[in-house]
Amino acid sequence: MVLTLEFLAVLGAGLFVGGAVYISVVEHPARMKAGVKVALAEFRPSYRRAAPWQATCAAVSLIAGVFAALLTSTPAWALGGLLVGAVIPLTLVVIMPINRQLLDTNAMLSDHDATALLEKWGRLHGVRSTLGAAGLLVFLSKVLLR
């Protein structure tokens, strides 16, 4: 049971980080270079596809990490899970208001406002990527230093 939880914690974190870093380093910069209208048009379907996938991976990593910590009395598993899981409240509280504005097809955002929102979103998504990577590194250190 413990090995399964540890595996799920690492797998969830790895999948989350892979997706988040790809978005932060490749997809979002590319969409921004295409111009604000293209960036906004690409953001909407991309976000709707990525959000459930990333949220699920983060939640799996959080839950599995915390349960692995409880079963092994090893706080590092909880720490890793909490780092990855911290992206959930960060997204819901800080990033979601930006998402709502960017996803609202009825909003009449000026190019300047849309660019500012997309740039802010990119910076905050970088924070998500960093939190996830930190959690994954904690998990990997536990696995590799056995």
What does this structure look like?
By secondary structure, the chain is an all-alpha fold. The protein starts with a helix and ends with a helix. The chain has one domain. It contains five helices and no strands.
The count of DSSP E runs of length 2 or more, i.e. the number of strands, is: 0
Using the alpha-carbon principal axes, give the shape: elongated
Strand content: under 5%
The overall average pLDDT, rounded, is 96
Number of helices: 5
Number of domains: 1
- Report Rg: 17 Å
Taking pLDDT < 50 over at least 5 consecutive residues as the criterion, the unreliable ranges are: none
Helix content: over 70%
Order of helices and strands: HHHHH
Structural class: mainly alpha
* Terminal CA distance: 17 Å
The major beta sheet can be summarized as: none
